[in-house]
Amino acid sequence: MGKLQSRIPEGHIAEKWNRFKSTQNLVNPANKRKLDVIVVGTGLAGSSAAASLAELGFKVKSFCYQDSPRRAHSISAQGGINAAKNYQNDGDSVFRLFYDTVKGGDFRSREANVYRLAEVSNQIIDHCVAQGVPFSREYGGLLDNRSFGGALVSRTFYAKGQTGQQLLLGAYQSLSRQIKAGNVTMYPRMEMFNLVVVEGKARGIIARDVITGKLHRFSAHAVVLATGGYGNVFFLSTLSMGSNVSAAWQCYRKGALFANPCFVQIHPTCIPVHGDYQSKLTLMSESLRNDGRIWVPKKKEDAARLQQGEIKGSQIPEEDRDYYLERRYPAFGNLVPRDVASRAAKERCDAGYGVNSTGRSVFLDFRDAIDRLGKDAIEAKYGNLFQMYEKITDDNPCEEPMMIYPAIHYNMGGLWVDYELQTTIPGLFAIGEVNFSDHGANRLGASALMQGLADGYFVLPYTIQNYLAHEIRVPRFPTDTPEFDNAEEEVRMRLEKLISVGGNATVDSLHKQLGHIMWEYIGMSRNKAGLVRAAEEIKKLQEQFWSDVKIPGRVEDLNPELQKADRLADFLELGILMAKDALHREESCGGHFREEYQTEEHEALRNDRDFAYVAAWEFTGPDREPELHREPLSFEHIQLKQRDYR
Amino acid sequence: MDLKLKIWRQKDSRSRGRFVNYFLREIDPDCSFLEMLDILNEQLISRNEEPVVFDHECREGICGSCSIYINGRPHGPDELTTVCQLHMRKFNHGDTIVIEPWRARSFPVIRDLMVDRSSFDTLIREGGYISVNTGTAPDANTIPVNRDDAVFAMDAAACIGCGACVAACKNASAMLFVGAKISHLASLPQGRVEARKRVQDMVAMMDALGFGNCTNTGACEVECPKGIKMANIVRLNREYLKSTL
Q1: Which residues in chain A come in under a pLDDT of 70?
Q2: Contact B30 A138 (CB under 8 A)
Q3: Which residues contact residue B170 at a Cβ distance below 8 angstroms, ignoring those fewer than 6 apart?
Q4: How many separate helices (H) and strands (E) can be counted in chain B?
Q5: Which of A201, A232, A339, A570 is paired with A411 by a 20 to 30 Å CA distance?
Q6: B-proximal residues of A, 250-269, CB under 8 Å
Q7: Do B7 and B104 have their domain in common?
Q8: B106 and B123 in one domain?
């Protein structure tokens, strides 16, 4: 194992977390006031962690690049949040949530982490209700649930189609309360550009004021990254425009290991790509699959006429429709996990059955649900999603089936962390989507919100004390040290280098090229030749970037193009690492589908003998190959088997 | 479609701003309004001109970053729509489109179409929350909530904090924003405990930040991209009155 000490507590899986909490080091209240914690990012994980740490008495510095912490990308999450409450009396339990999550992740996550996640899931719901999160309720006044992919129970709590918004506002309000109380200092429009490491420990960050362009130094006893996912390496994704990998990437370059970078989630139900000016893709919540049925025509000639725009989906009779998910997976039907649903859509479109002008789309149809429950009931449930769809496409989903296609949505990979959510740099923690820990090779729907809030409210505030207890004798320290000087100088030189390229290609035009390479070769299905080619093409693009990028304006000024260019420089490096990781993993699992490794029914073929491990990559230098470290995964409580949703 | 854009350009909060004309050709009607501005910016960069600065983030109509006045209306001509969800098919070939930032004393312009809305964050800090520490909550189903109350709370909580209500109001009043938060929390049993102090503190801060008074013109409700109702202002007034008794 070497560098990778996962630090999983001893004992039965159901006792590990309690045992850890009972025996870990804690910091006494008088000392908490003397300890500073930097939290970067204010999504679900960052806001909840900053608020909870401040409630405990730590002094927190919270950072976001947006104008307000409430604008973080978590706000876009639509469908819901899972918890093992078993309020529906349908057989749910902590173990079942744990089991579904490990299985859904195709057995590439760490058992102990996932069990803890399932364990604290119930507390999240309790806390959010106490905060005033307006979850949807039954007529009796109790909380309502719905189903999400990969589960046979209804365990998803939701607030209309805006669950992420409501949960984030809950965390934001708790954060606001702590800002008012003076326990959190908030730094909006302040973007992290570098990590400061002093004597091997994370001790601060360099951040750039988005408005003035000036660099600032911040010190602390620990640094927490809650900076989200890196899906925008594909240019088009469902992520917010500003979401980026740079904070995590700077930490990788400073010695934090990056785990399973090739594990990317492609969400099956998004509005398809329509033009080359397009800037982002819009998700249509997985909850729609509760009532919507996915299909393509049975006859190729019908597909051809749809592609030509000669007929509409509603004109195709029932007997000529192929409900391919229900056909292939009768047990889970339209609610198979995301990776399975995405691949099945691609398979049909590749075979020529796509239903829009580009041939890259399938139908999601509410006709039967409207016949069964009435139009009003369906609109009450999904009204805001239907409106959003109509605004973008100019089609009404009550009259014509929705057209959807898979799109980049989430990253299971991220900074490697141990059981205590600490990276390989002491004092640097990673929570929420930016870490790799809980979702293996595929995340189940409504589990991202659960993990972000679990990490921020209930896990990190404990585990970080196990580290901070050793820091109580360290006084607050100044930022005029050589380590801070160097870290700031690195950033300054990089920004100067970027702006002085003075070429002809705009940042977006280069980013789109990267996106095409990523989607073509490191997207929904991958093969050896393609991955080798991808790495070569990205390297060429990288050379072009550093010789031909055009950035207007100055470094010390409000400069959105410079921000984008800096992020793209890191995405280019990340893309190469993703290709490398995908190439080395000679198996198919979850969202990672290697064409060479599939069953006769075209399902993912895992190789547990050789690849039941976390691949954690270590940066060894700018022009050197990263070094692979392996954390073996052992499954003591779940039997490894091929996922079967039939 | 071909378009003429009159865009407000302003270097910073201290400088004087002015309208600058731009011409765009062959814009696809399926393109979103912000994508149209992206296309403009790509052209400006190629011509060595300064791109237009504007706030944007989710482009799904939920983060509330959009803050653009289009043809005299916050978020443009479409009902219940943020700028990022507005599509060019709502305009016609040959149109002139006037594009400005929010204009309110409490939202100073940072540059071009980007404004400073931190006063909204300051308002929430004055009590727009329920004081509950992590780990102390009882089981979520301990307190049933009447479904109608829950629906009312959700509709109020749907506010995205964009500031269109303030921008639309001739008095630049923040009553709809504050009212939405007050009534979200006041309509839930958990939020009743602090209702009195919350409404007092938030209203005092609203005045201190320079937001104007409400004269019930209803412009805020008309322009709110999330359909937040004036009923929330009524609720705010009622809660405020109650708190003084």
Answers
A1: 1-2
A2: no
A3: B215, B217, B219
A4: 9, 7
A5: A201
A6: none
A7: yes
A8: no
Measured between beta carbons, which residues in chain A are less than 8 angstroms from residue B62? 75-76, 162, 165
Residue written as token pair 């594909």 = A234
* CA-to-CA dists, residue A544 to A15, A496, A550, angstroms: 54, 17, 11
Cα–chain center distance at A278: 22
The answer, for A67 touching chain B at a CB cutoff of 8 Å, is yes
Tell me which CATH code domain A269-409 carries.
Answer: 3.90.700.10
Domain locations in chain A?
269-409, 482-613
Q: Report the run of H or E that residue A187 belongs to, with start and end.
A: strand A184-187
Backbone angles phi, psi at A608, to 5 degrees: -75, -25
Q: Does pTM surpass 0.90?
A: yes
For every residue of A352-400, which 3-state class applies, written as one string?
CCCCCCCCCCEEEECHHHHHHHCHHHHHHHHHHHHHHHHHHHCCCCCCC
* Whole-number Å distance between alpha carbons of A61 and A207: 12
Which residues of A are catalytic, by number? Answer: 338
Instruction: List CB contacts of A498: < 8 A, sequence separation 6 or more.
Output: A549, A551, A562, A565, A566, A569
CA B199 to mean position of chain CA atoms: 20
Q: How far is B137 from chain A (nearest CA, A)?
A: 5
Query: Which uninterrupted H or E stretch holds A488?
Result: helix A482-499
Q: Which of B27, B31, B46, B62 to mutate to test the interface with A (most CBs of A within 10 A)?
A: B62
Note whether B137 contacts A127, CB cutoff 8 Å.
Answer: yes
Chain A: nearest CA to B122, how far in angstroms?
Answer: 8
Of B111, B128, B160, which residue constitutes the final position of a domain?
A: B111
- Asked if A552's CB is within 8 angstroms of B153's CB, the reply is no
Average pLDDT, chain B: 97
Q: Which of B111, B136, B165 is the last residue of a domain?
A: B111
The answer to whether residues A432 and A455 touch, using CB atoms and an 8 Å cutoff, is yes
- Chain A residues whose CB is inside 8 A of the B49 CB are 552
Residue carrying structure tokens 């003076």: A182
Helix (H, G, I), strand (E, B) or coil at A51: helix
pLDDT at A141: 97
Using CA of residue A189, residue A192, residue A193, residue A197, what is the dihedral sign? positive
What would the two tokens of residue A618 be? 């270590």
Residues B213 and B155 in one domain: yes
d(CA A617, CA A415): 9
What ipTM does this complex have?
0.98
Q: Is A137 on the interface with B (CB under 8 A)?
A: yes
Name every chain B residue with its beta carbon within 8 A of the beta carbon of A141.
144-147, 150
C-alpha to C-alpha distances, A256 to A161, A175, A422, B17, B147, nearest whole angstrom: 36, 28, 10, 46, 48
CB contact under 8 Å between A134 and B161, yes or no, is no
CATH topology of domain A482-613: Methane Monooxygenase Hydroxylase; Chain G, domain 1 (1.20.58)
Report the largest interatomic distance among the alpha carbons of chain B, rounded to a whole angstrom. 64
pLDDT digits (tens, 9 = 90+) for A376-394: 999 888 888 898 899 889 9
**Backbone CA torsion sign across A72, A74, A223, A620:** negative
Q: How far apart are CA A568 and CA A494, in angstroms?
A: 13
Are B99 and B140 within one domain?
Answer: no
H-type helices in B169-230, by residue range? 175-186, 189-192, 195-208, 219-223
Pairwise CA distance, residues B97 & A605, whole Å: 55
Cβ-contact A387, A427 below 8 angstroms: no
CB contacts < 8 A (A, B): 214
Using one digit for the tens of pLDDT, what is the confidence trace for B180-195?
A: 999 999 999 999 999 9
8 Å CB contact of B128 and A173? yes
